Fold each of these.
Amino acid sequence: MSQVREHLEGHLQDMLSDVEKLVRAESPSNCKALVDACGQVVQQLFSEHLSVSAQVFTQTEAGDHLRFEYGAGERQILLIGHFDTVWDKGRLPYRIEGGRAYGPGIFDMKAGIVQAAWAVKAIRELHLPLRHRLVFFLNSDEEPGSDTSRALIENEASRSLAALVLEPSVAKSGALKTARKGVGICQVEVSGIASHAGNHHELGVSAIEEMAHQILAMQRLTDYASGSTVNVGVVEGGTRSNVVADYARAEVDFRMATQSEGERILQAVYGLTPKLQGTRISVSGGVNRPPMERSLGTLQLFETAKRVAKEELDVVLEEMAVGGGSDGNFAAAMGIPVLDGLGAVGDGPHAENEHIDIAQLPVRAALLAHLLLAL
């Protein structure tokens, strides 16, 4: 057993206690007061373990974002995470069953934050050398799209050698993430002409009928071979069943593995043309997160992590590409190597069974510590 892992194994219960504190500080993205209260717990955690204070980026509506800096060196390594969750307060209780800990945001991704703090704490207490300073950027609006934190993340990434993302590993497998799809969100609105559905049906032009044509056109933009999917997930329109609808709207989600595919889909959606005379189409929205493509730099990061996992921990690491986006997508778009999925091992992100494997807390913390030392 590596010295780092042995040290962390001895503090498993302390790590789990920190996870419980952070998870019990519930932090739904849409409640600034709760997210900021959770941010205070995060600050206490970093102050206690690493003796560092946060640079707080105050927000008016979203929760405040936190930046911590540890160590010295001319260059920095960026560690990215978030402490907001998709769960409303009281929706999912914290509990322990059969070697697993359950709770809101425990897998996605509060345990990852705790593991990272303890990884650096172990390096500190064992007096091991870091060549570069570490910057932790922890935001509070990742789940709804990182609207207020994106520019801050991109600024830090532009000054970093690499970014390590503390999001959870691939569910069940523990694999790291070397590629993520980009995410796009568009709103499509159709205007038609209202009329009485019984007396003057022929005078109306249905926005719902027009939208039906456009839904089929958008769904056909899916190309599984290229890793691109388009999903019209919300549709609404009309006012009464006896009125020809003069309005309809749709919310569209699209995912793409490459920037060029994102451009193709976006161009097609913005280029939608009416099929029915008298209707008009308007489109808004665009790419929310660029794709995190599997670059040579990312591959080299993974190979380093794979090597230290085997040599120091006797763990075999795997890599995967996933469909969901993270703040690592923004860092990758800045042209730096990004390795994602360095957080907890478990399952159930955004699901009722969201949980972590407790025994893996010190193992994954040790993996991150050895990766930082190797870099």
Amino acid sequence: MKELSLSVLDLCPILSGKTARESFTNSVELAQFTEELGFERFWIAEHHNMEGIGSSAPEVLISHVAENTKRIRIGSGGIMFPNHSTYHVAEVFRTLEALYGRIDLGIGRAPGSGSRAAHALRRSTDLSAENFPREVEDLLHYLQDELPLLAVPTNISLPEVWMLGSSDFGALLAAKMGLPYSFAQHFSGHSAIPIMKMYRDEFRPSRFLAQPKVTMGCHVILAETDEEAEELALSSDLSFIKFVQTGKSMPLPTVEEAKKSGLSREDSQQVRLTMPKFVGSKEKVARELSPYLNSGISGIVVTSMIHDQKKRQHSYRLLREIFPT
């Protein structure tokens, strides 16, 4: 299997039967564990009004994880621009970069919330993202001290800015601006391969990046056997089904709770049409990932929504065995 950079996308899942503090401790332990395995990045997502997802304040968690790691790059996957002032984002991430020197700023145009949270965050129910290209330009100007209004601290290295997206919009914008791009295959209804190719074909070199650089976000659940991996995946399958049915996020259930729920094989298969996962043994997952790897990506950014922390860590260990350094 080809050499590939591996990174983590952590939603800081709140686990059934556990506290938020325990979930945050799990995130730190996962960052330390994957750092030792040689993973390149550890990104934290932004979501709001979701009881089962603890990453509502990624800036705080980025600082906490960075303080407890040594080498791995820590960042946002991503900061959702409709919720924030670009000036404040520049200040926050310059501060993080000044503190730790290995910060990524992944940005996206989705709100990561519904209309109620959007109103609370922005005092508006407008979920449009028409201003996103201009806001990205403003952010880049702030980060390079090109505006009269300074984003302090100044005179520091730049956080690495990534464009995140789940459609051709983000891919084309990243290509036009000469930014690295990460495609969210794990929740996109679009085919990853043509969109990532579009980004590479349309890429224009910039002061930030000379050659196109694209990664793919994906949900991977690995175990020693296909059967065990399918069992571990029941937790996230049930969680998503309940979200679709009720509109409410739930703490990530245990495998035993998922089994008792009456979740069927057909239910899981239907879920994965909308929220695709790579689930199975090393051999099966390597085979299923192969078409994407051959499309020219430089890395994958992996989330593994597994209730059991040790089995979650083992899933990342098996992933490293598929893609050794």
Amino acid sequence: MQTFYDSIYYVVFNLTIALLAPLKNDSFIFWPFILSSIFIGLMAHFYWRNVETKNKSLIFDQRFLSKKIWWHRSARSDYVLYFVNALILPIFFGFFLLNQDELMIWFDRLVGVERSSPDISNHQGVIWQIGFTVIFFIAYDFGRFVAHSLLHDVPFLWEFHKVHHSAEVLTPITSYRAHPIDLLIMAWGGVLASGLATWCFIYLAGGKVNVVLFLGLNMLIAFSNLVGNLRHTHIWITYGPLFGKWFISPAHHQLHHSNEERHIGCNRGFDLAIWDRLYGTLYVPSGPKEKFEIGLGGNEGKNWQKIHQMLFNPFRQIIKKTYQIFRDKND
């Protein structure tokens, strides 16, 4: 009987956390980020409406808040997976997510440093704080880029990432449309890279260094999140041909979801475009919105809209392809 009550508590507790995400500053849909996205989105809408004279009659809610987008079958799948992941992820992350304190100890052992705690003191110099804020942001962004690229370039990992790319419309909840293994790999990338950056600053400063905060987050990450929700919308915002070579705009990421041949695999970064530029995957949007279709293309996307398909199709595809490879080698 106790197990039954514990199960009910687990479900209610985690679903409540998911519902309260707009009140949590570490959530993409934290209410200040939603409000800033609406404001910036409105400004972009009015700008493009004036540029594209044929669309002056369209108002913001008809374009971006319509039922065709927010109640599309793909959007409904996003909502369902969001709550399903709220129940699954605590198990996955509890067992497999890397802990930054443990990372500090591992890095100490790797270089032969012996100390009881990596955070032996606080080093609060302004220069150290600013430097740590910037380096942490760069490392975190690089780690996520590497993890994202692995999800695209490693065939069996791509099967998990297909869940995200099967979205046929984009809303801020599409950020959460991801297989638990996909989310775990993305988390590993960010934690490993930012953990190494943190260890380096602790080692060099002789103690703990704090980041500069805004809304309770690393200031640069918080600034990024002010526009971050617009990546998964149909609101076209570019940074122009110059800044678009250095920073990932919402339009960059919208093109990342395109299934057009010229866009496939492009713009894998989240904030800094330098990683895509070095890797050869940067596609810079600079003008009016391009015409492109979102999703996997063809009929494939239809097989990734139900919850059981999103959770189990990756495993089916991996088993099928592994068997095919094994059979080809033995023929």
Amino acid sequence: MERNNHKWEFREGFLIGGCLLAAGLALQYILGPVDWRWLAAPVNKIVLALLTGLIAVIFLLRKKVQAFEWMMHSYAAVSSLACALALTLVMGLTTQKPSGGLEWLSQMIRFWPFVLVWTWVLIVDGLAALNHFLRMRASEIPFILNHLGVFVAIVAATLGSADMQQLQMQVHYGKPENRALSEYGEVVDPGLAIELHEFTAEYYPDNTPKLFASEITIHTRDDSHLRGTVLVNKPMKVDGWKIYQAGYDQAKGSKSPYSIFLLVKDPWLPAVYAGIYMMIAGALCLMLFMAPKPIRKEDEQ
């Protein structure tokens, strides 16, 4: 195969970024915002397999396809990251809303150009991780950990978001409740029931809430019963769920007849943490390898 002698550099990278932006805008217009529910298991696992397979194919064909070889270079890494950071900056400068409607920039996490550009970053980052790994030298360990950590954390956070559940449950005294409301307004059975025994509220002198907590019993499907106290930042954990204190009848204060709980389940969260820990370990290893060696007395002579 005859290869083009033209050398790909930053210009091609920003051209790819522009094409992804145009393609994303077209998809946004045709399909509407990205609906992450499409990626609920097992679809997200299939997408992950396809993504890693694509990275492997690009890596194997890097010597035959000029574009693939360019993707292993810093030109691709810098240009892809620059495009992604530009969109992320827009995200930081615009008010993000739960429902963006036609205001595409107000919901960047569902904005097709944002998703496509960050997918490009992941592919380039995955290639870098694979390239460093196959060199199999101790000096490559920090770079492997950094690139792999970024890949794992972002992939787990995005693909795993479809499997994350956030439910709200309102529980009245003496009435065990097993129905919760999803963020999409659907009634969901989380596989457990909550029974409210006591609600406590404390206030500052200006009548703003100081503390509010609920003493509850959680009944699970396997007929186990877990009793404890739930606070805003101190959840109870059972069957993969974290149960937080979320609200109450503020008009009645400490005499509230009910308590509102937030139920959160994120099966991909351990993978996100694993990616973050790898990045931290990579940074520490990089400092270790790059630390200046002490000068020996015989070297000074």
